[in-house]
Amino acid sequence: MGLLDGKKALIFGVANDHSIAWGIARALHDQGAILGFSSVESLIDRRVRPLAESIGATFVEACDVQSDEQIAGVMAKWAAAYGEIDILVHALAFAKREDLDGEFANTSRDGFALAMDVSAYSLVALVREARPFLHPGSSVLTLSYYGAEKVVSHYNVMGVAKAALEASVRYLAADLGPSGVRVNAISAGPIRTLAAAGIAGFKKLYGSFAELAPLRANITIEDVGKTAIWLASDLSSAVTGEVVYVDGGFNVMGVPLAEG
Ligand code: NAD
Fold first, then answer.
1. Is pLDDT at 260 greater than 70 in this prediction?
2. Cα separations (Å) of 32 from 1, 21, 51, 78, 232?
3. Which residue in 36, 179, 243, 259 is deepest, having the highest Cβ count within 10 Å?
4. Which tens digits make up the pLDDT trace of 68-94?
5. Whole-model pTM above 0.90?
6. Domain 8-247 has what CATH class?
7. Are 154 and 102 in contact (CB under 8 A)?
8. Is the CB of residue 23 less than 8 Å from the CB of residue 225?
9. Which of 26, 38, 92, 119 for a ligand 1 pocket mutation test, highest count of atoms within 8 Å of Cβ?
10. 191 Cβ closer than 6 Å to some ligand 1 atom
11. Angle formed by the axes of helices 109-116 and 156-176, nearest 10°
């Protein structure tokens, strides 16, 4: 018996089998959840559909989260097929490559707006359109990073967007809590994904992480998936509005020194 037997989960953000969204999908699937996927059009046939099929999922819909119309379209199709959403996963973000290098002070107006729209506002838009299909016990989950609260070199505008995302989690939790719907974020340590490859200096950051984090290991998509099971399931029934760290304890360190 799985912790999520028969639960219906709609997952945004699978790009490939390295995606955090895919780690979460596999973990939810292993616990008995029924899954559906949405991703950007260009990835659907080449990447997302084959992955979905590998775990028996048939719902695969394209959606650019910058479009309210496309979001509403996916939700309507989901509702027609499955009726309700028990678990909604938002695991996506975007910023221009040039805004993830050099100084934050040089961020352009449109680069700032783009990063905020795709990486933070999209959670609000997804929740708003999903709301009619959420019910008491439903769980909404997003992904954040430590750069939301402390300066991480080159993370720049994405750090500001993640700060907005984390604040949005708290406001959404307050709005949806009275209906019994929970909203939380997982703040994951660095993981080698397509999105991470766009951040200048990520290799260095990833390379030194295991020396500095108390648990002395890098973070995997399986680590994130396990915490997602907890947040998606009744085990976290009284947890909402939180940012849960899956970072081997990295965030508790003040001035870590690499050993050796
Ligand atoms: P990824 O590249 O596998 O996933 C990012 C996803 O965002 C892709 O599927 C991409 O298609 C999607 N996306 C971008 N713009 C979009 C748009 N306009 N509409 C719809 N989808 C769009 O990378 P990932 O690292 O798995 O990223 C997932 C989430 O995890 C992101 O929010 C990221 O910031 C966060 N995160 C990543 C790390 C890390 O180190 N990789 C750490 C903490 C948090």
1. no
2. 8, 17, 17, 18, 12
3. 36
4. 999 999 999 999 999 999 999 999 999
5. yes
6. alpha beta
7. yes
8. yes
9. 92
10. yes
11. 40
